Amino acid sequence: MTKRILTMQDLSCVGQCSLTVALPVLSAYGVEAAVLPTAVLSNHTMFKSWSYLDLTPEIDNIYRYWKENGFRFDGFLLGYLGKKELMDIAERGFDEFSAEGAKIIIDPAFGDNGKLYGGFDADYVAAMRNLLRRADVILPNMTEVCFMTGLDYREKYDVDYVERAVLEMRKYTDATVIITGVELNGKIGEAINCGGKTQYVFAELLPARLHGTGDIFAAVFAAEYLNGASLEESCAAAGNFVGDCIRKTDKSHFYGANFEEVLHGGRS
Ligand code: PXL
Q: Ligand 1 center to residue 100 CA distance, Å?
């Protein structure tokens, strides 16, 4: 049976991130994608200005009809939510709409490169950290781990630092911790920890850092994982896919990665 996933994140009308990434990627990977848009933005927040329509007030209504129609989801993929009030709403969603054995995958999606995205603060970070106790798998990057745990953020680090980051994160959740975008020994990859020894999956480190690659990674990972791939296989598939997207992205394109051509079969 085709798996059905509910992805909760914003809809940025322009910008190749969150739902405009998750929907096509999940579908192309053979997963039925349902959406809970948390907000509509004119464009993502790495542009110089943006509008923001909060959709939180509509969600009660949406949930009411989902309940009436008896919808259930095999998985949840959470990304950029936008407001801390959405954490409770997400928990209600898990409680009311999980199919048996449903997997909850959360990408905290509030920061990168040592900084919070525009509009986020310490309260949001704390609320996200609290939500992570409900997850089966979490996909923070190093910036997000540091904000959530108080670990000092570093541009350059060694494997001991990554192991510390994993242990710090484990204090807040029993979920599988997958730290994304880990750079070690000239490669980039993921540190995967389910409580025992940390496993690493690496790919080629490319010179470009593009916006939205975390969202692409999360969507591929979630689809592969729900379809039965192991954690390592899902990370490898997602990491390689992101690498291909970066290679396909024109140098003059500054606001996202070219995942479309890769989905379309790598046509250049
Ligand atoms: O890619 C994460 C993301 C998602 N949604 C919005 C964003 C960002 C990152 O800045 O601004 C609106």
A: 31
